Write a sequence for this structure.
C-alpha cells in the first residue's frame, strides 16, 4: 500500500519537473536565438548545520561531532540573456548529500552516516564579468527548491565486546522533510572549447528548512540498538543542509 506522504511527494515532484520544463520552453521560445544550454557534473560536499556560520556546528546542540559527506551531483541548465551582461539561468539537478555524525564516551562509540538524494530546481540570476584574454567569469545567485527522492542512515554502535550495525530508511516513516528550500551563490570560470565553453564552477547552497521531523520509527523497529540517535527523536535538533558544489560544466548555443 502506498504511503500517503510518499504519493504526495511523487505528485509534487512530477508537478515541479513539469513546471520547470514548461518554464524552460517558455524562456527558450522567447529568446531562442541567444539561449545557451549545458550540463554539469561534480562532487557535492554536504554538512548538517545548526548555526548561522556555514559548516560550523553550534557547540552542545547536536551532542555529536559533525563531519562532511562527499557525494555527487549532475544536472542541466539554460542561460537566457536579458541584457549584454545579465541573464536568467534556470537549472534542474539531481544531488546526493548528507553528513556523518559520531558520538563517543568511555564505553560506547556510535556513528550515523546520512545519505540523502534530491531532485532540485534552481532559478538563478547571472552576471557575466569581462576578463582580458580567452577566459570568462560569471557570478550566480538565486533560490532553490528540492524534493527528496531517497534517504537513509547507516548506524554503527561499538563497545569493547561487540559491534552492531543497521540501516534506516528515512522516507519510510517520514523521518525527514519531503521537500526543502534554500539559496545559492556561486562563481564560474570558463574557457572556450569549440562552439561552447568549459567552466569550473564553485557554489555554496545553504538550506532553510530543518531536515528532521518529529516522527519516530515504530517501537518494534527500534529493538536492535534499543535507542534512536538525537536527530531521529521527537525533539530533533534544528539541522539544515549546507552544501558546497564543485562542477565542470559545458555550455553551448542551442541555435544554429
Amino acid at each position: 500500500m502506498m504511503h500517503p506522504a510518499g504519493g504526495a511527494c511523487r505528485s509534487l515532484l512530477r508537478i515541479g519537473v513539469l513546471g520547470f520544463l514548461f518554464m524552460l520552453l517558455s524562456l527558450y521560445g522567447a529568446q531562442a536565438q541567444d539561449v545557451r544550454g549545458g550540463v554539469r557534473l561534480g562532487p557535492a560536499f554536504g554538512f548538517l548545520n545548526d548555526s548561522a556560520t556555514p559548516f560550523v556546528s553550534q557547540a552542545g546542540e547536536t551532542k555529536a561531532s559533525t563531519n562532511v559527506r562527499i557525494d555527487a551531483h549532475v544536472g542541466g541548465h539554460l542561460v537566457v540573456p536579458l541584457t549584454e551582461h545579465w541573464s536568467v539561468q534556470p537549472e534542474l539537478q539531481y544531488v546526493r548529500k548528507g553528513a556523518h555524525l559520531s558520538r563517543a564516551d568511555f564505553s560506547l562509540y556510535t556513528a550515523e552516516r546520512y545519505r540523502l538524494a534530491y531532485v532540485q530546481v534552481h532559478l538563478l540570476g547571472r552576471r557575466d564579468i569581462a576578463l582580458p584574454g580567452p577566459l570568462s567569469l560569471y557570478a550566480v545567485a538565486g533560490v532553490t527548491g528540492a524534493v527528496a527522492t531517497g534517504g537513509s542512515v547507516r548506524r554503527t554502535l561499538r563497545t569493547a565486546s561487540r559491534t552492531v550495525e543497521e540501516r534506516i530508511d528515512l522516507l519510510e516513516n517520514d523521518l525527514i522533510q519531503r521537500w526543502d528550500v534554500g539559496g545559492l551563490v556561486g562563481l564560474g570560470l570558463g574557457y572556450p572549447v569549440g562552439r561552447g565553453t568549459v567552466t569550473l564552477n564553485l557554489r555554496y547552497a545553504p538550506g532553510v528548512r530543518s531536515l528532521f521531523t518529529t516522527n519516530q520509527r515504530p517501537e518494534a523497529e527500534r529493538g536492535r540498538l534499543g535507542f534512536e540517535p538525537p536527530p531521529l527523536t521527537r525533539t530533533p535538533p534544528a539541522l539544515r543542509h549546507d552544501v558546497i558544489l564543485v562542477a565542470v560544466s559545458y555550455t553551448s548555443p542551442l541555435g544554429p
Observations:
- Helices lie at 4-30.
- The mean pLDDT is 84.
- Residues 4-30 form the longest helix (27 residues).
- The chain has one helix and nine strands.
